[in-house]
Write a structure and sequence with these properties.
elongated; Multidrug-efflux Transporter Regulator, Chain: A, Domain 2; mainly alpha; about 10% strand; three-stranded antiparallel β-sheet
Length: about 150
């Protein structure tokens, strides 16, 4: 952790780890269980999300000001309406801040890195699919050439 930033907060150590360590620390079994426990609903009110996550509503409001990615929609009555992706993001934020003991800045950086990594994986996935199609085409051509050789022999 030589490249890590260490911050003292209320006599506790909070970390902003180096970029290399993000991919290894973001997902774990407990987070997967939490995400799987999210009910299949289209929208959640702030109180429902707070109960589901285990924090107070004012904490969610504060996180909205600190994390650009977290911006729930507003209903006609001006109530916050969280979509399932917002609830997943809140679980991720809670994990980073509470369990992994990241600072707010460290969690912000981790989420930005996760977004960049996700984009790269999607791009590589598209390239991988194209390469797989080319491989199948080459195999088909080789099989066709082998059939022609048998006919000529």
């Amino acid at each position: 952790m030589s490249e890590d930033g260490v911050y003292e907060v209320f006599n506790e150590r909070r970390y902003a780890p180096s970029v290399r360590e993000f991919s290894n620390t973001l997902y774990d079994a407990e987070l997967e269980r939490n995400l799987a426990a999210i009910p299949d609903k289209l929208a959640f009110k702030i109180g429902e999300v707070a109960d589901l996550i285990g924090v107070k509503t004012y904490v969610l409001r504060y996180w909205e000001t600190e994390f650009d990615q977290l911006h729930p929609q507003k209903s006609v009555k001006n109530q916050r309406v969280y979509l399932k992706k917002d609830v997943e993001l809140v679980f991720m934020i809670k994990k980073l801040l509470y369990r992994d003991r990241f600072s707010i800045e460290g969690a912000r950086t981790a989420l930005k890195q996760l977004k960049r990594d996700t984009k790269q994986v999607k791009a590589l996935g598209g390239q991988l699919n194209a390469m797989e199609e080319i491989r199948h085409d080459v195999e088909d051509l080789l099989a066709h050439i082998a059939g022609i050789r048998q006919l000529l022999a």
